[in-house]
Amino acid sequence: MGVRFPCATRLVVCFQYKPEAERFRVELVERLSKFGLEVEPTKTKVMEFGRFAVQNAKQKGERAQTFDFLGFTHYCGTKRDGKGFRMKRVTARKKFIAKLKIFKEWLRKSRTLKTKELWEAAKAKLSGHYNYYGVTDNLRGIARFGTEVKKLLFKWLNRRGKRGCLNWQKFKEMLKRFPLPEPRIRVRMFGFSVN
Fold first, then answer.
1. Where are the domains of the chain?
2. Is the pTM of this model over 0.85?
3. Mutual orientation of helices 93-110 and 115-133 as an angle, nearest 10°?
4. Using one digit for the tens of pLDDT, what is the confidence trace for 137-172?
5. Helices 93-110 and 139-158, interaxial angle, to 10°?
């Protein structure tokens, strides 16, 4: 009887040739079984990914495969100059929706806080999101999250007083006086420094 780990190590391994990947997969399963561990078959797959994946998928009339890992959807892309392969990342759709839902629930529970306290906590939560998801190629994703958070803040602040006491114009002025963090790339994945 082996030990069960509810959330064990996640691993992505890359190979140039498919036979190498399949051999590794078989050997990994054998090696882990010696220690009473096993690989979850529904979360394990060999997929084509890399500089030839897009071309091969187009020839088949399909799109290149993507995969989700650590909250990001990884996909095949090209460098800025349009030449050469580069793996790109965007916020995974499931995570985006889940994080918005969590923020919405937090706002619902925290709506009785003083505005200043609510605002400071919202800023901290937004900064945390930007710090984790603010990687190369994901600026649009974190900007979209920031926009949705602003809409939620407007909605819940508007519910506090008399009906309609806070219109969008007043809210925009509030954002100017007490700005929320701006979305920006915090981690450059390709060796450029970040301020």
1. 18-91, 93-177
2. no
3. 170
4. 999 999 999 999 999 999 988 887 666 678 889 999
5. 20
